[in-house]
Design a protein that fits this description.
about 325 residues, mainly alpha, 16 helices, about 70% helix, about 0% strand, elongated, transmembrane helix, ARM-like, membrane, transmembrane, Transporter
Length: about 325
């Protein structure tokens, strides 16, 4: 609406300017009655056209509108007509660029050998154990060991133990140091719990015994103990688990106690603990894998597929149960 008003006003001023010229005015009268209305018409026309221009053509200021005003003002009548005739067709008949959907290119020739090859790449194809076995550069093997810091403990420890047999001293020392750190942290927690155990009453010892059972089990589960030391660690874990359960019921601890008994080879005790854990409220999918392991170790192979079949379908689609389902199906 504003643009239409500007155009209409410009037309009125321009018409009055030409009407004044038709009356043969003097120079002073012509300046007042013809030039000033013409200037006003050019200003209104410039503003109207500038508002219609796309944003990228309105800059820079003030040169873009001044250019339109100069053409319209210094070329009477024809200038204004020429500006309108030039701008309007450009606004309403813009050239459209069709979007190019695809571009045909030739197939580049593959190089005979890699264009760039780092001497010691940080990552290699295959697992970290393959790097420790096959990598000839000690730096690569050290990098593989450092990568185990982001892995779960039970996955990292076998790799670190493998590195203990590495021919390079730096690799062996780093692996030993990382294993020692893991074991030291667990032993420190055990020592703190044992110290607190002497300071509390018998009724308050249940969570401390439970914590000791879990940390002793962690030593065994991570593979940080072997031989007679492993037997002692498992015995300590089972002892503290039983002491905690004698004070208060704990289904989670019953499940842990069953896993400890399973590791000790006491299958009957393991099944008894798993049954108590399930009765205490532990969901069957958490207990079923250990019941299946106990059935397998006892030679009751027919019970294994029946136990696996009771697991949720989404659980059977994930490793390691997906492979077990295919094998026992």
């Amino acid at each position: 609406m504003t643009v239409k008003w500007l155009f209409s006003s410009a037309l009125v001023f321009e018409a009055s300017s030409w009407a004044a010229l038709m009356s043969n005015p003097t120079i002073a009268e012509g300046l007042m009655l013809s030039v000033l209305p013409h200037a006003a018409a050019c200003v209104l026309l410039t503003v109207a056209l500038w508002l219609l221009l796309p944003g990228r053509y309105r800059r820079p200021l003030p040169w873009a509108p001044l250019f339109l005003f100069s053409i319209a003002f210094f070329i009477p009548l024809l200038g204004a007509i020429g500006v309108v005739a030039a701008v309007f067709p450009a606004l309403y008949t813009q050239r459209r660029h069709e979007e190019q959907v695809w571009q045909a290119t030739g197939v580049p020739a593959l190089p005979f050998r890699p264009l760039e090859q780092r001497k010691s790449p940080m990552f290699q194809d295959g697992g970290l154990q393959d790097v420790l076995h096959l990598a000839s550069d000690p730096e690569q093997r050290l990098t593989a060991l450092l990568a185990t810091r982001r892995m779960a403990g039970h996955e990292a420890v076998p790799i670190l133990k493998l590195a203990l047999r590495d021919p390079a001293d730096d690799v062996r020392l780093l692996a030993y140091s990382m294993l020692d750190q893991k074991e030291s942290r667990i032993n420190q927690r055990i020592e703190k719990l044992l110290a607190r155990l002497e300071e509390v009453s018998e009724e308050a010892r249940a969570p401390l015994h439970a914590g000791l059972a879990r940390w002793y089990w962690e030593l065994a589960y991570l593979g940080l103990a072997q031989g007679s030391v492993l037997d002692h660690i498992l015995a300590q874990a089972q002892e503290h688990s039983e002491k905690s359960l004698s004070i208060e019921d704990n289904p989670e601890l019953e499940l842990l106690s069953g896993r400890i008994a399973l590791e000790q080879g006491d299958l009957d005790q393991a099944r008894l603990c798993f049954d108590r854990a399930e009765e205490g409220g532990i969901a069957f999918p958490k207990v079923a894998p250990f019941l299946a392991e106990a059935a397998f170790l006892s030679g009751n192979y027919a019970a294994v597929p029946a136990l696996l079949a009771r697991l949720p379908e989404e659980m059977l689609r994930r490793p390691p149960f997906a492979a077990l389902k295919r094998y026992w199906a």
